[in-house]
Model the fold of this input.
Amino acid sequence: MSGDDLPREVELAVVGAGLMGAATAWAATRRGRSVALLERFAPGHDRGSSHGSARIVRRAYPDPLYVRMTGTAMRLWRELEQDAGEGLIRVVGGLDHGRRRNPERLAAVLAEARVEHELLPAAEAARRWPGLRFDGPVLYHPEAGTVDSAAAVTAFVRRARARGASFHPETPVRRIVPQDDGVRLETERGTLTARRAVIAAGPWLADLLGGLVALPPLTVSQQQVFHFPRRDPEVLWPVVVHKDTLSSYSLPGGRDGGPADGRKIAEHDAGGATTPDTRSGVIDPVARERITAYVREWLPGLDPEPFNETTCLYTSTATDDFVLDRAGPLVICSPCSGHGAKFAPLIGEYAADLAAGLPSSDARFTLAAHLAAAGLP
Done:
């Protein structure tokens, strides 16, 4: 995907072309806005949080706010699929279990939101999904599965460009200068002015906005992901969130899972702190051993030897709520705390709303709320 000539002026500049920035460009161009989308790396890079072929989409959350948001996000994913003319969502259903996951509580929240679900005893869940092990109640809800993250980024960008957006990969932003009537972005390929700028730069966000906006503490961590072969390729499993001794998740791996659709498995938020420019990209052998032992105990339908492994970055807030707010001409978009991918088209809508002058979609996402949670003025 080649880039375009950098315009001198647009209504909206979006910095960062991962899931959130690309979704913002798509949302804004659907409203007729002129947009420039800037990305510091080449298209499809694996330096941030949006690469790979599978992320979980699901409705089950213990928080009613996020349950409502998942419903809207699902509708928007379908709109993107229709707009792009390709399938991005793979529906396989979702399972939640484990003492620290509290399936009964999840079932109550889904019942209140009128989301289809079942609460199953362990024996019934094991009968339905051979090769998975359970030791307590299991929540099943059918409206869950995976989204092809890398393909979604490409689709967002392609459809935004079709509506007039310009795309600028390998164009690092070196300086952001708020002005009375907008913002100036100084890049390695020239200078661009915009009425508003959405900063959706993931783990690079704090570096770009340092000194310009009072940000809450943001933690960047390197997470480790493994793929395991399935013993019986005919057996299909839902996505699984399991919180017991480990806080883990597993899902069909898509392209990254190879031709036999190997299973993607990882711990949630177990990586060590790092920075986007100093991350090692090296798998911790202790983490590999921990996940391998977990597979032997809880997923006997897998061969417990990983055939593929990689790392990715989380950028997290202390509360795990997103950051979606405006400060002058700047819109601060996300830190998604390891659970934001499923919301990408909705976060794009929220960011486009903020750029249009509307308030934050929820008070919990404001800078003030995050600063207060951190005990900062």
In short: The domain at 9-50+150-217+319-373 is CATH 3.50.50.60 (FAD/NAD(P)-binding domain). The mean pLDDT is 97. The chain has two domains: 9-50+150-217+319-373, 91-146+219-316.
